[in-house]
Amino acid sequence: MIWPRSYLPMASFITPAQPAGSVLRVVVVLLLFELGFAAMPWVFDAMLGLDVDLASPLATVAEFAVFALPALALALGLRVVHGRGLISLIGPPGRATRHMIIATLAVAAVLAVQEPILLWMDREQGLILRDPAHWLIWLVPGLIVITIQSGTEELLYRGYLQQQLGALSPRPLVWMVLPSVYFGFGHLYNGATTGEGVLWAIWATMLGLACADLTARTGTLGAAVGLHVANNVFATVVIGEAGGPSSGLALLLYPPVDALPPEIGLVALATPYTLVDLVLSALAVLVMWLAARVALRV
Fold it and tell me: Which terminus of the chain has a lower count of CB atoms within 10 Å, N or C?
């Protein structure tokens, strides 16, 4: 295979996936992962019960912790179908760890500057500050489970799929775009309406492309995990929607945002507000991607 100069590390990254085998094997592993993902709500309810406050710190920690289930399903699929383990998805472990630390710190530094500016521009939101002492109690558990959640997604999309599809074809359309679009589709359910779901999917696809590019440039999963973790920490531990799901760990809470009217559907995506939102989302991903690249010198 002939790889572009900037993606030469990708050649070594896909080595554990060679020989690639049939696409059917990939489908089997994906089905196992999706079964693990589908079982998450059942495990969550078994752990905390049906009447749990979804905006509580315990519920948020449990919500992210159950991502260990699809990770275990992925590990099972890898072992049974391909005869290899999760460690084969990350590249050289020492280098992957170093890339993760550098990318996490670089992206976090950029977000630490960017987020206060955005909050100041929208200072009419009426932010609520949670008790810092109570927030600190849950900080470490929160960081651990967010790493589990982000790492699980990266292991599948930028680890397994990028390796297997990269072993089949050197074309970025195959190993970069397809997994990123699949990753985006997985976020459709995040929206309360069809329009919001599509916005989530577009944003996630852009994030996936950035993570896939970093993985190809570095030859490890570390940078992608680092960017993903830093993004999710700021979106979960730093600020969240008051009373909303996954808001139990946030230090700052903004008032609930009205969903796009469901009767508008996809037409809502053509409004100036949503178009500006898409541009800002693209710029935010671009800034995080550049921060990781500069820090890693790739």
Answer: N
